[in-house]
Amino acid sequence: MARITRPPVPHFIDAEDRSLAGSALYVDLIPTTCWGSAGRTVLASQYEWQRIRTMVYERAGNACEVCGNTREDLEQLGYAPRLHAHERYTYLSVGESRVQRLTRLICQCLACDEVTHIGRTSTLGPHYLDRARTQAMRVNGWTRNELDAHMTEARRLWEERSQWEWKLDVTLLKNAGGRLLPGQRDREVIWD
Ligand SMILES: [Zn+2]
User: Fold this and answer.
1) How far apart are CA 113 and CA 26, in angstroms?
2) 11 contacts: CB under 8 Å, gap ≥ 6
3) How far is the CA of 75 from the centre of ligand 1 (A)?
4) What is the pTM of this model?
5) Helices and strands: H and E segment counts in the chain
6) What are the pLDDT digits (tens) for 43-97?
7) Which residues are CB-contacts of 28 (< 8 A; sequence separation ≥ 6)?
8) How many angstroms is it from 66 CA to the middle of ligand 1?
9) Angle 126-140/144-161 helices, nearest 10 degrees?
């Protein structure tokens, strides 16, 4: 069956804050109460996410917006040559509710993505954890103590946020031309 193609996703997405956290590299742990339902999982198909992330890579010139690595750089450094469209969220209190709002999509190389998701990285083994630590210290100019302090604070924030139920605001993906997967979800999705 022929796929219906749609126009490319524009580089400017209404309501996206591309300045959110600048080009900082930091550990960004997803609260346990949000696991299993990232923004991309509410999209109608893989194709929807593919369209959006292709735009994220293109507008960044196919280089990491944090450290500048290209796929070729990654390969030379011994990584798989992969870029990621990382979802940066803000966590808000709105009236009685707590809202996890997708606020920015950022092109990150695999080396930086391993830092952002260091909890998951650590499950891959000590080699992966070590190289994530090295990347965080190199990019941020941190000492080992500064990295440890950052990781302690990231964990504290994660524990605090994991105590709450969060609605998922993915209006950004709608504004990027995405389509919502119909059906039941385990938490409320804001899509307008
Ligand atoms: Zn990077």
Assistant:
1) 9
2) 55, 58, 59
3) 13
4) 0.93
5) 7, 4
6) 999 999 999 999 999 999 999 999 999 999 999 999 999 999 999 999 999 899 9
7) 88, 116, 117, 154
8) 5
9) 110
User: In whole angstroms, what separates CA 106 from the centre of its chain?
Assistant: 7
- The DSSP code sequence of 108-162 is EEHHHHHHHTHHHHHTT-HHHHHHHHHHHHHHHT--HHHHHHHHHHHHHHHHHHT
**SS3 at position 57:** helix
How far is the C-alpha of 128 from the C-alpha of 123, rounded, in Å? 9
In the structure, ligand 1 is a single-atom ion and the residues with CB under 5 Å from it are 64, 66-67, 69, 109, 112
Report strand pairing: 167-169 vs 97-109: parallel
Phi, psi of 102 (to 5 degrees): -70, 120
pLDDT tens by residue, 135-184: 999 999 999 999 999 999 999 999 999 999 999 999 999 999 999 998 87
What is the structure's pLDDT at 3?
66
| DSSP-assigned letter for residue 5 | P
What is the C-alpha to C-alpha distance for residues 146 and 43, in angstroms, rounded to an integer?
Answer: 38
Give mean pLDDT, residues 111-127: 97
